[in-house]
Automatic annotation (TrEMBL):
Organism per entry: Listeria riparia FSL S10-1204
Domain HTH LytTR-type per the UniProt entry, residue ranges: 126-222
UniProt-recorded Gene Ontology molecular function terms: DNA binding; phosphorelay response regulator activity
Coiled-coil stretches noted in the UniProt entry, renumbered to this chain: none
Xref: InterPro entries: LytR-like, LytTR_DNA-bd_dom
Name used for this protein in its record: Response regulator
Source superkingdom: Bacteria
């Protein structure tokens, strides 16, 4: 896994943290945003970005859905602006505070989350079919039936079950947000357009939903990525 960083003054601290913890991370110092976008390569990656680079973060998020975005900021309140734009940062580092500890915490968080992500976890249905949790986009109820449609990165499936039963099975998976006839994987949401009622997923899949669904997913999205 590669680390892209534009703040060269923090590279030595980062190297020391990586060496001390034996993290499998390679550091790539870049001078501009174009270099990051051109060299993303194998996914996911780690991105240390200035807090004022939200446009770049958007572009990265669309290319690297599971990438880890970490922001350097001079002010802790900037985090709320970042979250409000649905960019979903992994961590943020306030420059006035102890930089070494903050970088160590951020990298430890990335490493822990990546180990969990790489764990092969499948959603099993109809006794024999299975889909990786990370590939699930969303579930939706099929009106006037006892069936649910499962949308994934590779296709769709019809499940003979009630959505409430699927929600119960996934109660321990905090990345899923469910309201009304939808159950949405927040990890694969790349944009929430509250004005027009559109949720966009990786791969450009979209759903048009009512105000209640949009509000609930937006609230859960903020809560999930503000830890």
């Amino acid at each position: 896994m590669r680390i892209f960083i534009m703040e060269e003054q923090f590279v030595q601290i980062m190297k020391e943290v990586i060496d001390a913890n034996h993290y499998p991370f390679d550091i790539h110092v870049v001078t501009d945003s174009a270099a990051i976008l051109q060299d993303i390569g194998e996914l996911p990656n780690i991105y240390f970005l200035p807090a004022d680079s939200s446009d770049l973060a958007w572009q990265i998020r669309e290319l690297d859905v599971h990438g880890y975005l970490i922001f350097f900021t001079d002010c802790v309140h900037v985090l709320h602006d970042i979250v409000a734009q649905y960019i979903a940062p992994t961590a943020y580092i306030v420059k006035q505070e102890e930089i070494s500890d903050a970088i160590a915490f951020a990298l430890q968080s990335v490493y822990s989350r990546e180990m969990v992500r790489q764990n092969t976890n499948f959603f099993v249905f109809d006794n024999e079919n299975r889909v990786l949790y990370e590939d699930i986009l969303y579930f939706e109820t099929i009106p006037r039936t006892k069936k649910v449609k499962l949308h994934t990165c590779s296709g769709t499936y019809i499940i003979a079950d009630f959505l409430k039963n699927i929600k119960a099975r996934l109660v321990g998976h905090t990345e899923f947000s469910g309201v009304n006839s939808y159950l949405i994987n927040l990890h694969n949401v790349i944009r929430i357009d509250r004005k027009n009622g559109i949720i966009t997923f990786r791969g450009d899949a979209e759903i048009h939903a009512g105000r209640r669904v949009i509000s609930a997913v937006y609230r859960d999205f903020q809560a999930h990525y503000s830890h």
